Amino acid sequence: MIGLPDGGLRAASVVVLALVFVGAGALHFVRPQAFEAIVPPTLPAPRLLVLVSGAAEILGGLGLLVPAVRPWAGWGLVALLVAVFPANVFMATHAERFAGLAPAWALWARLPLQAVLIVWVVWASRP
């Protein structure tokens, strides 16, 4: 059975983060082309990177719901968030290519928000 941490805010955070990561990970398989477009061109095998990162998001999100592996899932998601940061930088520095997805200011604002997300995952997944 899924055991949520004591405290309403942490419990809610675990569920919200799990839904966000599982949902985002599933989108990697449903619409891989959208994610391939944000893979920096210097990286090889964009489709493979998209599928691997999608699977990691799904596994990490589900792992947050299992108390025995929650801390490990949290650290795995932190590693994933660090690993995909170059794609976020690529989007911000090539904002004209992604104008249909978001305005340039939002792509730049997303960069520091990655740190906020990392802190949130660490806090929610702690033992």
TrEMBL record:
Q: Which UniProt keywords apply?
A: Membrane, Transmembrane, Transmembrane helix
Question: So which domain of life are we looking at?
Answer: Bacteria
Looking at the UniProt entry, the stretches that span the membrane are 12-30, 48-66, 72-92, 104-123
Protein name as catalogued: DoxX family protein
Source taxonomy lineage?
A: Bacteria, Pseudomonadati, Rhodothermota, Rhodothermia, Rhodothermales
